[in-house]
Amino acid sequence: MLGEGIIKGMAETARNFVGSYHDPLRLTTVEYPEAKIAAKENARNFPFLVFDGDDAMKGLRCVACQICEKECPPQCIFIVKDTVKKPDYIGKMQVQPKIFNIDISVCMSCQICVEVCPFEAIKMDTSFELSNYDRFGGLLLDKHQLARPNGYYHKIHAIEAEEVDARLAAEKAKAEAKAKADAEAKTKAAAAAAAKPPALAAPVK
Description:
This protein has a three-stranded mixed β-sheet with strand order 6-1-8. It has a domain at about 45-165: Alpha-Beta Plaits (2-Layer Sandwich). The chain is an alpha+beta fold. The protein is built from six helices and eight strands.
């Protein structure tokens, strides 16, 4: 039938038009900012730093390896490594960033910093209401402004965060098992050396 495709297309358009008034799945707009649509699981905007424990600065996962700074295409990350190790949230001595800044006016949300980080320390946020009157200083975020608890990461990226925590737990268990095995091997070697009779001195002629 001539024009059958046009008729089907117009019918689909009419169905979507009518449905947009009463079907929640077809509502495309809300009364922002009074009403807001929840961000999707895979939404991303600008990076933030994950920390564990209650103290943001002690619990930062970042060890200032500077890989993200080197790999960032627009070079919007600036890191200065601290010169001394400090205890983290569990008391382990760790290198931490003395300065960690991200200029979100330059950041292009490519997520490369997240992909190259070997410590799961930097992730992508879903927050987008960051406008302010200071074009430069107001959009240059330091480590205090970038720090977010692991609970926040679970809230915005639940599935991804659970996978990351499981992987980190497995790596930690593996490292602890290796350290325990090495300690036992050293103990056995020391015991064997102590039990070995001393070598007899050669007779003096």
